[in-house]
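Box 4.2: Ligand-aware structure prediction
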Amino acid sequence: MLSSLRICALLCIVAGCSEYDLKQETIVEDRGDTAAVPVADDDTTEPPADPSSPVDDTARPVDTGEPADADTGGGALPEPEEECNGVDDDGDGDIDEAFDANGNGIADCLEEESYCTPFDTFEDWSYAGTGDWHVESGMLTEGRSGFYDAIAWLYDLGAANHFAIEVSLAWTGSLNDLAGIAWGVNETDAFVVRWDDPQGDYGRYTPTGRIDLSYCSAGACTELASSSTADLYRVADQTFSTMAVDVNGDQVTVSVDGVVVMTATESTVLGSGPGVVGLYSNDNDGGVWFDDFCVWTELD
Ligand SMILES: [Ca+2]
Ligand SMILES: [Ca+2]
Ligand SMILES: [Ca+2]
Ligand SMILES: [Ca+2]
């Protein structure tokens, strides 16, 4: 017996047992059991208190308030995505944004290329007046000294509420005045968007150059809108810039090299084009050069 007790005591010492440890274990177990019961009791007692308490009633509407419901609903519904369809699907105020690959202002799915020429020939074109129009090295050029008003035109491309016209423009020499795009042409009458004083040789504008929208009749042009805020200086070394006109209802937007340089709301352009489209030149002593002329219309 004694030897057995000694062995037990020894084992107890080696294992690190003590009376204190045993008491601790018991306390921990008791606390856990005691704690678990009151918490469960508290949970069980809370719901009956809610319906009878006015404070809880007040709290309920806050819990079931609209923001919580709206958040749940917003997360559940998929956000509408913009599609190319002539409708503002995502409701951001822009129609078919990010669907204009060529940047002409007309959505890809709705546009029709009505005409495009790299000016290898000038055979389909007509012109009136004293302009010196001719094709040279695959470009259309016009230029001579003296005041004149020259419009070259193509055939009738029909009517559209939304149309866009683009051309590449360059200059050589000096004392170049006005060059641009024409539509709704009836020989010497036309709507024109013109780029004036591109080399600043006449010092008319600061910064250099100016864009205007005018209606010209037999050489007399009535200005409808203009802007000279953009720097439109270009060296006369035959380097091309792109001029683009977007007419959407009564809204006219003019861009140069992809930057909007003039916007106007002008009721007289409603239903004006594209019709007979063309190019405009006035008093370009050194010479203006045109290339890659294109016209697009938006399908109904
Ligand atoms: Ca949109
Ligand atoms: Ca759309
Ligand atoms: Ca486009
Ligand atoms: Ca001139």
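In the box above, the bound molecule is calcium ion. The chain is about 25% helix and 35% strand.
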